[in-house]
Target: TetR/AcrR family transcriptional regulator
Amino acid sequence: MSTAFEVARKWFLAGRKIDMVDLATELGVSRATLFRRIGNRDKLLGEVIWSLTEAAFARHLRAARGSGAARVADLVGSYVRAVNDDAAFSAFLRNEPERALRLLTTKASVVQRRTIDTVAELLAEEAEAGTLDPPLPIPDLAYLVVRIAESFIYTDVITGAEPDAGKARQAVLALLGGRE
Model:
């Protein structure tokens, strides 16, 4: 039997709204049982989106070029580009912009916290290798790198402008003191 997470992830990837009543019906459980097992819709969406974010970060990190600031900037640029090109993610942003921003850019969900932790690990790795001289404490720097990425992913929702992964890469490179 499929788990709530597996079904929700499949629906998200298909661009389908994750409705808790529909999900309970699909799983053959009551809505109350579903809530007891997995929590509310926002918690489930956060876990689904984090699973996709974590996998995407890993792929883009393996493909990132260079070291130090260049590597971090390359990761951010390619990740932002991939997110902006992702049909399922775009559908979620378009259909539920307020929920998306709350889940993805605030402490209301696991996504931002875990993303910051992941970036902090990368920054620490580069600093320990001697390829990056962090201009700020690593936790603060990780937060700023993530906020830059978010700014260029959600630009259309926040300001109406087109998202631009190249600008995200340039901003991170500048923050970290890197050069082209």
Remarks:
- Residues 127 and 133 are 6 Å apart (CA to CA).
- The two ends are 51 Å apart (CA to CA).
- Residues 41-175 form a domain with the Tetracycline Repressor; domain 2 fold (CATH 1.10.357).
- The chain is about 75% helix and 0% strand.
